[in-house]
Amino acid sequence: MMKSLILILLLFSSFRLQADIAVIGNLKNELSSMTKKEVKNIFMGRTRLLPNGSFALPLDHPELRASFYQSLTNRSIELINAYWARVMFSGQASPPLKLPNSQAIINVVKENKGALGYINTNDIDENVVKILLILK
Amino acid sequence: MKFRSVNQKLIISVLLVALVLAIFVSIVSFISELERSSSQTEVMLNQLLDTVEDTASIALFSRNDQIALDVLKGLLKNDIVYKAQIKGDEGFDFQLSKDYVTNNIEKVILRPLISPFGDEELGYLLVQPAAQFKLIEAKHGAITNAISSVLIIIVTSITIFLIIRSNISKPLTYVSDTLHAIQIGHKQRISELKKNKNDELGRLVLDINDLLGVLDDKYKNELALRKKVESIEQQLRSIFNSTSAGLFALDENGVLITFNKTFQHILKNVIADISTPNSLLASCFHEQEEFNNLIVDAFQSGQLETQDFSLLATKDAGLTWVHCLLSKVINESGKVHIEGVIFDVTERVKVEKSITYEANHDMLTGLLRRQATQQAYQQHLKVSTNFKACFLFLDLDGFKEVNDTYGHRTGDKVLVIATERLIDCVRETDLVCRIGGDEFLIILINCSNTNTYQIAKNIIMSIQKKIPISNGISIGVSMGIAHLTENAKGFDELVQAADTAMYEVKRQGKNGYCVSNEEKKVHKISNKI
Known about the structure:
The structure holds 2 protein chains of 2 kinds. Chain A is an alpha/beta fold. Helices cover about 45% and strands about 20% of the residues of chain A. Chain A has a single domain, classed as Periplasmic binding protein-like II (D-Maltodextrin-Binding Protein, domain 2, 3-Layer(aba) Sandwich), CATH 3.40.190. Chain A contains 5 helices and 5 strands; from the N terminus they run H-E-H-E-H-H-E-H-E-E. A 5-stranded mixed β-sheet of chain A has the order 3-2-4-1-5, with helices on both faces. In chain A, about 25% of the residues are buried. Chain B folds into 4 domains: about 5-140, no CATH class; about 180-240, no CATH class; about 245-350, Beta-Lactamase (2-Layer Sandwich); about 360-525, Reverse transcriptase/Diguanylate cyclase domain (Alpha-Beta Plaits, 2-Layer Sandwich), CATH 3.30.70. Chain B has a 6-stranded mixed β-sheet, with helices on both faces. Chain B has a 5-stranded antiparallel β-sheet with strand order 6-5-9-8-7. Chain B is rod-shaped and about 205 Å long. The two termini of chain B are about 120 Å apart. The interface of A and B includes residues 83 and 86 of A.
């Protein structure tokens, strides 16, 4: 009985850990937070500029990608891929840069003022990066 | 009016109706096709928009002009699209159109474009249809429809025409032509229609044949009747013209209406041109008044009236007598006229006249006989008042001796000469009569006494003149005179008185006269004195 209770708690806590994705930015970024729409426009290639006018550098996370776009656009990853395939074919735009893991994203965000990435909230050290939006 | 056959009219009517129907159907189908193609165009355009909508919204979302142009190019590849446009915010606006064709359609179809990753509206996609396409589509549809409907109409028309022609107009034409050619009185009939045996046309043919039969019979009967009437008329006309009687008809005024040849022949000497029957028949007779009276009598009595009339002859001297019969006739229409018959009775009248003459006159001398003289005297007595007459009774002296000496023939000659002398001595109005043998009676009408005695003397002297027969014969005359008085008027009475006075002369020596009331005084007359 005790065991099963612990298991449920664990499951619950692990779900919580997995579900929360945060959009992070450089500490020097002047923005304190971003709206879902602003994030979407940058990540879907509609704009290359941050709302304050500085260049944006969106970064994709290999494992979190599907759930990130799902919660951001409410579309499946296949649709997102198809979209990018069409846009890329025109040669006028390209999807966000794909990085191998969370650490690599954190490193790039730490180094670039306009970089935007998304990682699990558990992996965030707020001394290193700034949380701009949390997707639930 | 020009003759036009039913068939001709049928063809023209059917063709006209078919033509009108075909035109009507074509117009209606063109209009409906135009509408249909219009709505079809809209549907097609919407389908096109459905196809490119996603791509267009991607182009708009990503502000990708390349994709937008691809979409627009793709749309313009369709005939149906004239112009296409993609418009978003921040000056994102692309449009393409077929500028090489004119387009007069203002209508556009606008599709709002929704972001592929959200619900917000990013802009719109617009297309304008090509008018040319719509028209071509409509034309195509309309022509297809028109051809098929015209075909159906033509086939139906021809079928109906053929059915009507074979069932109605052709047999009708046959019946009409045959009937037109049939002449009354011929045996020809319309032969039975095999196809229309049991319909109205078949019945019509039967009825026409029946009627022709009836007409034929009537025609034959009428022909026979007419021939009969003609022959009767011929006979009557022949009788009318060849009869010895002159036949005629008069109207109520006595004017000639009609007459036959004999009538014309009888009156040929009276009326020069009788062929203008407008003349009064009465004017042909001496007895005009009497003829008019006869007409009045005939009208009043309603019976046959007859009388003899003499004709006023213009050329021939001879008198023509006709016997005339008149009777009133009322014809069918109620008009009254006179029908008359005249016979030439000249010969009969002549005989009658001569008989009468012989009865009244002495054959030898031609003098009146006693009976006739008496009648004439009494006629005078009857008609005139204050009538005077003087009776001279004569007896020839010495006549017996002449008869005895020279014979009766000479005696007769002497009588004739004596008669001539008597007539020479009296006036025309006086009556001279042979009583018999050598006795004569002379009645002087309205003669004065002086004249009477002078005439008496003249007679006696005249008779005594020598008669130039043989060596000359002399005779004398004794005369008694009797005057008509209030007391003595009778013929016989006066004759008797004169006779008595005459005997006094005989007794006293002959050749003189004695007046009845003068007491036997004899006035001797001698031509020797």
